[in-house]
Recover the amino acids of this structure.
């Protein structure tokens, strides 16, 4: 059963392959995503993030979930030497680089807690593949070619793994290097495969921002695999990518 | 590791052939430089190759019939430095007549530069596996975050329309 919703202005889908009716579980998962949007959206004036930016809240008065995300993001910011940043150059809080992955992972954890074992959650291009897509079959997750939306640069076969992709082809140059504040260059697409989507999402953004040195940096510090494409079309890998490639 | 060095060898081989071709062209085109004075003469000089030997009714006796061959001019020509993504490559090619007798590598990228760029590029066997994975059927698609508008054109929308 496939469920669709739009959260954070982004289409999200949950494809559940367990037997039975899972409408309620899917609704609860989407509720988790909506809750995250209500807390972290920079577009909602009443979100905690907006209120923090207006100094109506402080890091001491935000909710537990907000603190959880800030703590997680701070760790990535430290390890990456501030390539991954929590605040813009002007000091505004911006947690977009982590919220989607973190929220989708939380929704997937909710599904699992509700007893759903075999599902695929796609949050606007960031994917959690849980269990199997069918008897003995992993989830085949295509990685979109940067040149053509209908073509895959690779297909991954994933079980209980997540993959996030950072690219410029949908939203233009929205990934900034936290150190310089200028648009990242070097890659057209970076996909990171990891056990949880929060990590994969942050690393995809960070590696993209770092440029050509990024993939090696990431696999030396985190348990992940990477497939990227450079501006001249060259494929770049890091970690154990081969392990995740689908048989053609 | 093997793949890397196979790449280097192939790369150098191609460069050598290119430099040799260029060198030869220089060699036969220029009649002014000191290096090529002797080369300009070479078309008229009886060469050591069979095709350049005056026709004879008894090819098997060619060698004996022509007697001692004048020693062909030897020359060494230095190729231009070629800029590559891994650093500069420059070789010199030694000729005897029009035959290449040796190639000397004057400049190659340091292994440091080479590793820096190539360690990240997908090795050939893995590239094959990536390309062959492209034909696998997909359940869903990972890509740069798309907006609801972009979604309509995205690969995922096509997949989500499946019954």
């Amino acid at each position: 059963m496939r469920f669709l919703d739009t959260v954070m202005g982004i289409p999200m889908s949950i494809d559940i392959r367990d037997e039975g009716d899972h409408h309620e579980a899917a609704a609860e998962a989407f509720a988790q995503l909506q809750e995250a949007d209500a807390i972290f959206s920079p577009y909602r004036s009443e979100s905690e993030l907006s209120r923090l930016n207006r100094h109506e809240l402080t890091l001491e008065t935000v909710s537990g979930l907000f603190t959880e995300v800030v703590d997680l993001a701070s760790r990535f910011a430290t390890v990456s030497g501030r390539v991954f940043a929590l605040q813009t150059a002007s000091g505004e809080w911006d947690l977009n680089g982590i919220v989607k992955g973190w929220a989708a992972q939380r929704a997937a954890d909710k599904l699992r807690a509700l007893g759903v074992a075999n599902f695929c959650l796609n949050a606007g291009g960031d994917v959690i593949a849980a269990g199997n897509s069918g008897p003995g079959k992993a989830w085949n997750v295509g990685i979109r070619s940067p040149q053509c939306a209908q073509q895959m640069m690779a297909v991954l076969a994933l079980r209980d793994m997540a993959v996030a992709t950072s690219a410029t082809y949908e939203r233009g140059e929205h990934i900034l290097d936290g150190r310089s504040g200028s648009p990242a260059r070097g890659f057209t697409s970076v996909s990171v495969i990891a056990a949880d989507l929060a990590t994969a999402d942050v690393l995809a953004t960070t590696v993209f921002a770092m440029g050509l040195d990024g993939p090696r940096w990431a696999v030396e510090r985190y348990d992940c695999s990477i497939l990227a494409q450079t501006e001249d079309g060259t494929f770049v890998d890091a970690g154990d990518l081969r392990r995740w490639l689908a048989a053609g | 590791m093997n793949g890397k060095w196979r790449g280097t060898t192939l790369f150098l081989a191609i460069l050598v052939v290119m430099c040799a071709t260029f060198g030869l062209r220089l060699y036969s085109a220029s009649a002014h430089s000191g290096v090529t004075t002797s080369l300009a003469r070479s078309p008229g000089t009886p060469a050591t190759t069979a095709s350049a030997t005056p026709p004879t009714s008894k090819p098997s006796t060619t060698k004996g019939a022509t007697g001692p061959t004048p020693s062909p001019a030897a020359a060494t020509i230095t190729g231009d430095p070629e800029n590559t993504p891994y650093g500069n490559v420059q070789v010199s090619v030694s000729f005897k007549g029009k035959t290449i007798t040796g190639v000397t590598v004057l400049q190659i990228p340091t292994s440091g530069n080479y590793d820096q760029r190539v360690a990240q590029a997908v090795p050939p066997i893995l590239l094959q596996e990536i390309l062959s994975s492209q034909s696998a059927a997909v359940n869903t698609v990972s890509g740069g975050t798309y907006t609801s508008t972009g979604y309509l054109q995205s690969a995922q929308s096509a997949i989500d329309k499946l019954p």
